[in-house]
Write a structure and sequence with these properties.
The complex is a heterotetramer.
Chain A lengths: L5 H20 L2 H28 L7 E15 L5 E12 L1 H24 L5 H23 L3 H19 L6 H32 L4 H9 L10 H17 L7 H4 L5 H10 L4 H8 L1 H5 L2 H24 L3 H21 L3 H28 L17 H15 L5 H16 L1 H26 L11 H8 L7 H17 L14 H16 L14 H6 L7 H5 L4 H14 L6 H6 L5 H28 L1 H10 L1 H8 L4 H72 L7 H21 L2
Antiparallel strand pairs in A: 1-2
Helix pairs in contact in A: 1-2, 1-4, 2-3, 2-4, 3-4, 3-10, 3-15, 3-21, 4-5, 5-6, 5-10, 6-8, 8-11, 8-13, 10-15, 11-15, 13-14, 13-18, 14-15, 14-17, 14-18, 15-16, 15-17, 15-21, 16-18, 16-21, 17-18, 17-26, 18-26, 19-20, 26-27, 27-28
Chain B lengths: L1 H36 L15 H11 L10 H17 L7 E6 L2 E5 L7 H22 L3 H32 L4 H11 L3 H4 L1 H14 L24 H26 L21 H22 L5 H30 L1
Antiparallel strand pairs in B: 1-2
Chain D lengths: L1 H22 L3 H21 L3 H25 L16 H20 L17 H12 L1 H22 L4
Classes of the chains: A mainly alpha, B mainly alpha, C mainly alpha, D mainly alpha.
Chain lengths: 746, 340, 100, 167
């Protein structure tokens, strides 16, 4: 397990090779091979590390490797006047949480790499290698993020994944909408990073260290800020701002839908499975801090549920297949934050994992569909694809059922866990969450039916490429998807030049379908690691993850501080239930076995209801949907325009920024430049005076000196007669002087 | 008192007389040798086989008129021959003719003085001799002597370096500068340095020829080029002085060579008992014998070899003898270190 | 009895002679020779003191002085020759180019 | 007694020749007097138990340096005597006065016996003068010795460069 630092290094190697050498020299085959091999190796290595971790006793499942010092230690003064040493090593930390994360990242990343080989085959050679270089680089940074044992290393990964997502969203950089979306994602993330950085500073000045374990232990000894809004609350709030940026929560979720401009594997890997969950991971990593700040927990929960609800409503009416998935991603992330907010860190992490599986699966399936449709993304131009893409259909159905929380697929267990914890903590949050779950099931099955059932509404496929372009004209929901479709169609036509253009929806190549199978398997089975106690399961995942969320090292470090810290944890377990995981979930479970079973049945019923309604609307009688849309035209418009959030932001922040910038410019032009010019004038005038002084006073002095010297030289230069003997005579004077000294004043 | 003053004076007088007589007869010997080499008889008139010829020459030189050129620098003109002659004579002060010398029945050391820097003394004194030549040529205020004197001094200085280098090797072998010490060192070592230092010996011989302006290096008095060299303007007694000085220098060179390389007064194979009878002959006799051997080689060479050209002379001196001598010093040092 | 003082007076006198030569003569060769005289005066002091203290180190330094004198003579005469070749004179008063 | 006589005679000769050197009309004469002076100094060295130095004096000074002077004197054949042109700005007389003043001061210092001239115990200078100097030069003063030889080399090259007409 001391080799965990190799895990990030392998993808980095791949990125370096593909990026520096591959873009020039590698064939597509070589590039893909290099990337996938290194990813496979990383996956194997992380599996090995995972088993190594499992061997350890449950409490001691933590391993820290300090590879090298990074920032040499320098003492800094803290807020309480004490002196903390600021030293940052390249440290990697393997504990249950990060172990699960690296498994998810490398595993799903590996599958998606393989998928990309087939999906990107239409790209020109250089761009192909570039794509894989970016992808590897992303995995590298992601692993840095999850493995870092202090905030700074984590921040390196944090920024790195932001950069990679920018690069990959803007992968088709010749397309303005794509590069705009990239910039948007990057800038919106900056806002969150600002919060994160300030949080880091605050943490250091408060705890005198940036090491996760140290901070957690220090925090565990502090009182829970039930009363007021203290420094820990501030820290956690700032960190949460960062999390909203990275994980697309209100108010910073606007970048994620646009991020769908990137290639579909990218959407699957970065914007569904891994990067967007970084915020959730960060919150879980600092569970101790958060559990000491109830106010922040409330805020987190509220923001989470709001995001889940709103995103779900928006998802109801979107027509772009990938955008539907994007909004469902946002709402699922909302679910995770609900879990974090109610203190069910384990449940959140659990949902994170399962969501990674089925959301990646769904994205890849949609990618397969788009691939099959020659780049078409508008669901209204699809339909009845069931018979053309059986594999995709089956796998995607699995994913849909999973996300809808149908027993016994993975989504059921995780989402149900979250709903349970929410029910225990706050009924209102639970209500909204349930409605969001209902809508989730609805729009997901709407997507299925619009895509796979009914009659085929797509373009005729003799001249499919041309229609792909024609679609650009009357695309719905903004120009970008249709343009993307057109562009992609053109690309696939170029790629498929061998088989003579796009002829009809067709099943994807094996390199794409095999990952689908693998992920579907994952989506089906991933849930069984967390069978709740009510169903006779041991809820293994929570037991496994628990040590990551508590400051167990406190016991070892300050035995004296043990008692108060324990007292605190107990007292806080009332306000923030389950925050201490296993112990208090045994002690504080205020619900009977029957009630728990009832909740599960209810959530399953919710999912089934959503599915049934969607079936009713879009398969049986499609006109109902149109009637509804016509009757609620206003609401429909609002929803399909995503609550005008982008427009509001444009009107407020961006326009405001512009206006203030213009104002500042005017200020600059008038006042600052005026001041500068004024100073210039003053300088010139004073310069004129000083010039006079220079001319008459200084030069006068100099000339005076010169004149004096010249006059005196008339006398003195006789000395330099050029006659050797006179010079010798002077020496003789010297001798005479010395001898006289010796003679007279010995 | 007697030991301190009288005996040295007596010795000095003896040595001077001996040297002058020897010079006179070396001149005769030279003429004879050349005559024999050229299958002639040589001087035969004055006395049997011209045995009295030198006396006649000396007489002639004494009675000859002594001319001083106009606008010559009189003082220097007069001083030059003396400056040449004196060093040549005082060099004999440190030359050991024998370990001991029996004179009037008394036994005394066979040398005038044994200075601990004897060899250097000879070298420096020889250096003084150059002035005579330069000044003689310069003061006679005529172009041939001037050129000749410049040539002579250049030649002497150049070859003095090589010769001194060879002396250095000898000093390294003997470990002392005193002439007597050197001879004793050869006795102790059992080898004459001539055999231990053949290269040095050869260089010394060539250098000696050059230093005494003897053929084949007698450029300064090359009749064909500059009438008679630096003493063109001289006549009578002063000329005699130059003449004396040259031959005295020959004797000095020869006796120094004898002392350094041929074991001085030592009998051949002194440490071979079978040849101990050679020890019956007194040391000074051996010394004189060896010296005359050397002198004879001088004359022989003059009669045999043609004269060098000046550039050849310089090239030989600077590009062959000096590097060779330095190399010899280095090799000797290395051997001395390695053998010991 | 000859004490070191005698030698010192002698060397002082010789030194002063050299000094006078440097001061008065205009023939640069003779000036150089006067400098040689001064150096000899220095040497006399060295030797005299090495005799007084019965310590040969004084003679060592005299050797070094002689070395320096040789170098000085060589370079100085070279300069004189070069100068003479250019200006046909060795009068030091005509060597006064370095003046205002 | 004897050494006193020797000293006074030699001192007289040295000073006399020195005076002649700086007063002689012809350069050649002053060169000659210089040689004579050096020889007398060498003799003085001998009386001071510095035989090696005496010989070196004769060899290097008389045999080398002064010959160099003589050459230069001969190479420099002047059309007009060197002393004719005299710069009015020369302060010759002042120089003479100063030199004499310095001499007087020095003599005063010595005569007042401020130089501690008592002779210390003899025997430090062995008759094997050469060995002594050799050991000193090659053991204690090796570095200065080498530096001096480098100085000679530099001077040689410099003299050649200066005196050679065309390089």
């Amino acid at each position: 397990m001391d080799l965990i630092w190799l895990i990030p290094l392998l993808p980095a190697l791949g990125a370096a090779v593909n990026g520096l050498v591959g873009i020039r020299f590698f064939s597509k085959r070589t590039a893909g091979l290099v990337a996938c091999t290194l990813m496979g190796a990383a996956f194997a290595l992380s599996l090995w590390a995972f088993w190594g971790l499992l061997d350890l006793p449950a409490e001691g499942r933590e391993h820290t490797v300090r590879v090298a010092p990074w920032m040499s230690s320098l003492p800094l003064q803290l807020s309480d006047g004490a002196i903390g040493t600021f030293d940052i090593p390249w440290g990697f930390r393997l504990d249950p949480l990060s172990a699960m994360m690296i498994l998810v990242v490398t595993g799903i990343g590996f599958l998606i790499h393989i998928y990309s080989i087939g999906y990107m085959h239409g790209e020109p050679r250089g761009a192909y290698a570039r794509f894989f270089a970016y992808l590897n680089l992303f995995v590298f940074f992601m692993l840095m993020l999850v493995l870092g044992d202090n905030f700074v290393v984590m921040f390196v990964g944090w920024e790195g994944v932001g950069l990679c997502s920018y690069l990959l969203i803007g992968y088709y950089y010749t397309k303005k909408s794509a590069s705009d979306a990239g910039k948007k994602a990057f800038i919106v993330n900056r806002i969150g990073d600002w919060g994160f950085i300030i949080g880091m500073f605050l943490i250091f000045t408060t705890f005198g260290s940036l090491d996760f374990r140290t901070v957690a232990n220090a925090a565990a000894t502090m009182p829970v800020e039930t009363a007021g809004f203290g420094v820990v609350s501030l820290i956690t709030l700032l960190l949460f701002v960062g999390a909203t940026g990275k994980s697309a929560q209100i108010p910073l979720f606007v970048w994620l839908p646009d991020a769908m401009e990137g290639p579909t594997p990218v959407s699957a890997l970065i914007h569904a499975a891994t990067m967007v969950t970084a915020g959730v991971y960060m919150v879980g990593r600092n569970a101790v801090l958060f559990s000491h700040a109830p106010e922040t927990m409330q805020i987190v929960a509220i923001v989470g549920v709001a995001t889940a609800f709103l995103a779900a409503t928006i998802g109801l009416v979107q027509n772009d297949i990938k955008r539907v998935l994007a909004y469902s991603t946002v709402s699922q992330l909302g679910f995770m934050f609900i879990a974090m907010g109610v203190g069910a860190f384990a449940a959140g992490a659990f949902h994170l994992m399962t969501h990674a599986f089925f959301k990646a699966l769904l994205f890849l399936c949609s990618g397969s569909v788009i691939h099959a449709m020659g780049g078409e993304q508008d669901m209204r131009r699809m339909g009845g694809l069931r018979k053309y893409l059986p594999v995709t259909f089956v796998t995607m159905m699995v994913g849909t059922l999973a996300i809808s929380g149908i027993f016994p697929l993975s989504g059921f267990f995780s989402k149900d866990e979250i709903l349970l914890k929410a029910f225990l903590s706050n009924k209102i949050i639970w209500g909204f969450a349930v409605v969001a779950a209902l809508m989730t099931a609805f729009y997901m099955f709407r997507l299925m039916s619009m895509t796979f059932f009914g009659g085929y509404r797509g373009p005729a496929w003799e001249t499919g490429g041309a229609h792909g372009h024609a679609a650009a004209g009357h695309g719905h929901g903004g120009a970008s998807p249709a343009v993307a479709g057109g562009g992609h169609g053109a690309k696939s036509a170029v790629a498929g030049g061998g088989e003579g253009g796009w002829h009809g929806p067709h099943e994807s190549p094996k390199s794409m379908t095999y990952p689908l199978f693998a992920l579907a398997l994952g989506a089906m089975l991933a849930g069984f690691v967390g069978i709740p106690a009510a169903l006779g399961g041991g809820n293994a995942i929570e037991h496994f993850l628990e040590p990551s969320f508590v400051a167990h090292a406190v016991v070892a470090e300050h035995p004296t501080a043990l008692a108060p810290s324990e007292a605190k944890t107990l007292s806080e377990s009332a306000s923030v239930p389950e925050s201490k995981g296993e112990a208090s979930s045994e002690g504080g479970a205020h619900i009977s076995w029957l009630g728990e079973i009832g909740l599960m049945a209810f959530s399953v019923f919710i999912g089934a209801l959503g599915i049934f309604v969607a079936w009713r609307f879009y398969v049986k009688a499609p006109e109902i949907a149109d009637n509804l849309a016509r009757r609620w035209a206003g609401a429909h418009r609002v929803l399909s325009n995503k609550y005008y959030v982008d427009e509001i932001y444009d009107a407020t922040f961006i326009a405001g920024t512009m206006a203030s910038a213009r104002g500042l410019w005017t200020f600059d032009a008038r006042v600052v430049d005026g001041a500068v010019n004024g100073t210039g004038w003053l300088t010139m005038i004073s310069a004129w005076f000083s010039h006079l002084i220079d001319k008459y006073v200084v030069d006068g002095t100099v000339n005076l000196v010169g004149a004096v010297l010249e006059e005196s030289s008339f006398v003195l230069r006789r000395v330099q007669s050029g006659l050797v003997q006179n010079y010798a005579l002077f020496m003789l004077f010297g001798v005479f002087a010395f001898v006289s000294v010796y003679l007279f004043m010995r | 008192m007697v030991e301190a003053i009288i005996l040295p004076l007596v010795k000095i007088v003896i040595v001077l007389v001996a040297v002058l007589v020897t010079v006179m007869y070396i001149v005769l010997l030279e003429r004879k040798v050349q005559a024999w080499v050229q299958v002639r008889l040589g001087p035969m008139r004055v006395g049997p086989h011209g045995i009295l010829q030198p006396l006649a020459d000396v007489l002639k030189l004494f009675v000859k008129e002594d001319i001083t050129p106009v606008r010559a620098d009189r003082w220097v003109f007069t001083a030059a021959p003396i400056i040449v002659l004196v060093p040549a004579l005082i060099a004999f002060a440190v030359i050991p003719f024998g370990k001991t010398l029996s004179l009037f029945g008394a036994t005394m050391p066979g040398y005038i003085a044994d200075v601990n820097v004897g060899l250097l003394y000879i070298v420096s004194v020889a250096g003084i001799g150059i002035y005579g030549i330069i000044l003689g040529g310069w003061s006679s205020n005529s172009k041939y002597p001037l050129l000749a004197s410049l040539r002579a001094s250049a030649q002497l200085i150049s070859y003095e370096i090589a010769v001194t280098m060879t002396l250095v090797t000898v000093i390294m072998l003997s470990g002392t500068l005193s002439m007597v010490g050197i001879v004793d060192a050869q006795l102790a070592g059992g080898w004459w340095f001539g055999f231990m230092q053949p290269v040095a010996f050869a260089i010394y011989f060539i250098g000696g020829l050059a230093e005494t302006n003897r053929a084949p290096f007698d450029l300064p008095e090359a009749e064909q080029e500059l009438v008679a060299g630096f003493h063109t303007e001289y006549s009578g007694m002063r000329f005699a002085f130059y003449f004396l000085a040259e031959y005295a220098n020959m004797i000095v060179v020869s006796s120094v060579a004898t002392t350094l390389f041929l074991g001085g007064w030592l009998a051949p194979f002194p440490n071979v008992s079978a040849l101990s009878f050679l020890g019956l002959v007194p040391g000074w006799a051996w010394f004189i014998l060896k010296t005359f051997l050397f002198l004879y080689v001088f004359l022989w060479v003059r009669a045999t070899l043609p004269r060098y050209r000046y550039d050849q002379l310089m090239r030989l001196g600077w590009k062959w003898l000096i590097p060779l001598a330095i190399l010899n010093v280095v090799v000797t040092g290395l051997l001395k270190v390695l053998v010991k | 009895m000859i004490t070191t003082t005698h030698y010192m007076v002698l060397s002082a006198g010789l030194f002063t002679l050299g000094l006078l030569g440097v001061m008065t003569r205009r023939n640069i060769i003779i000036i150089l020779m006067s400098i040689e005289l001064m150096l000899n005066a220095v040497n006399i002091n060295f030797i005299a003191f090495s005799y007084q203290l019965q310590n040969p180190i004084g003679q060592v330094f005299a050797v070094f002085v002689i070395v320096v004198a040789a170098a000085e003579a060589a370079v100085g005469l070279g300069i004189i020759l070069a100068f003479y070749r250019n200006k046909e004179t060795i009068n030091i008063d005509e060597m006064s180019l370095m003046r205002w | 007694m004897v050494d006193a006589v020797a000293f006074y005679v030699l001192a007289a000769l040295i000073l006399g020749f020195g005076a002649l050197v700086i007063t002689a009309k012809s350069t050649v004469h002053s060169v000659l007097f210089l040689v004579a002076d050096f020889l007398c100094v060498a003799a003085l060295y001998v009386t001071l138990q510095a035989q090696f130095l005496a010989v070196i004096q004769v060899m290097v000074y008389a045999g080398g340096i002064v010959v160099l002077y003589l050459f230069v004197v001969m190479l420099v054949n002047l059309k007009r005597p060197p002393e004719v042109h005299s710069d009015p700005r020369r302060l010759g007389r002042l120089g003479v006065v100063m030199s004499v003043a310095v001499l007087v001061e020095l003599v005063a210092i010595f005569a007042l016996g401020w130089s501690k001239p008592e002779v210390t115990g003899g025997g430090g200078l062995s008759p094997k003068n050469v060995e002594q100097l050799g050991r000193l030069l090659y053991q204690d003063y090796l570095i200065p010795f080498e530096v001096a030889s480098v100085l000679l080399l530099v001077a040689m090259i410099g003299a050649i460069v200066l005196a050679k007409r065309e390089l």
